[in-house]
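Example (one chain per record):
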Amino acid sequence: MKRIAIKIGLLFAIVSIASFFVHKFLLPFGWGDDSLYTKIQYLEKNHQKYNSLIIGGSLEYRQINPYTVDSIVQGSGIDMRTFNMAIDGHNFVQQMNDMDYYLDKWGSSLDYIIVSLSSESMFLKNQLHQIKFVQWVNLKSAFLGTKINLEAPMPLKRQVQFSYFYAMTLVENGLLFGLGDEFSRFLVYGKYNRDLAYLGKRNDGYFPYDLEQDHMFLDNQWEEKLLRLSRENYLKQKPQRDSLIAINKRQFAGQTKDNKLIESQLEILLKLKAKAEKMGIKVYVSVPPRTRTSYAVLMAIYDELPADCKFELADPRIYPEFYEVENGYNFHHLNVKGAELYSKAFGEKLVELEKARK
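Predicted structure:
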């Protein structure tokens, strides 16, 4: 029995060491996420062109046009040259992981980082076992995700379930379990076979869903059908649209019970903000419209942030235009028209904060 235990221990140690070297030297940051790795490879060669990064999920990737934002900010005499580094599906934990990496990688050329407060540590279950999700979960991010889960205002069963998901995904990534094909493909030609469409028309990282649906038709017709279906349902389901808006209004009015402060989420955000500021980088935190996460949860964190570094454009009582059907692509995203309105307001908020600091 003792020999078996020793052999198992040795095998585990060998596998762990091998995994460390594989991830350290063969698999660069973002390797399993096509759009993320495409953006990283582009910035490797072009980061000196930009002094501002937007970090977030699809609510930023699909809704913030750097060209529009920069036009407004530069029109006020402020030098801001923005690249949209937001990626579909990136929750708060991933965003903090991204931000930490970008600070180490390109911090010397940055003056601004604009990070989204639009999610927590939860994720859609259909992301499990998918290379895009698995490849980023390391020990540090799994610990943070679990810590946030256990503080979040949700039932204990759900807390335990998603903590288990993080642990399971950590093991999958560490052992490259089920990722053999993707791993081999990346080593052979993955570094070069990238879809540059994800950089957007101006190579600034902005790629709205209106363009994505046409691109998917050529590349992945099944996902394209799902995307179009989400839009069709949005246009047809007025009761659901009205219900979501009503829920958002109650959340902003403080009429829900989930306004508990997730302290570990606030802590990591302030920690990375301080790291950036030591490097001379200004950090702004934005709250976008149409989030899946309760605004009661998000605003509990938002309210604890310094006034000179934050803005929100999410309250439907103040910004009803971002919830109007003609400006929406689906229930949780704006279309190109709505994104332009949002990007303009986004730029105006940045100008206000910059002027207030002077």
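Caption: The chain is about 55% helix and 5% strand.
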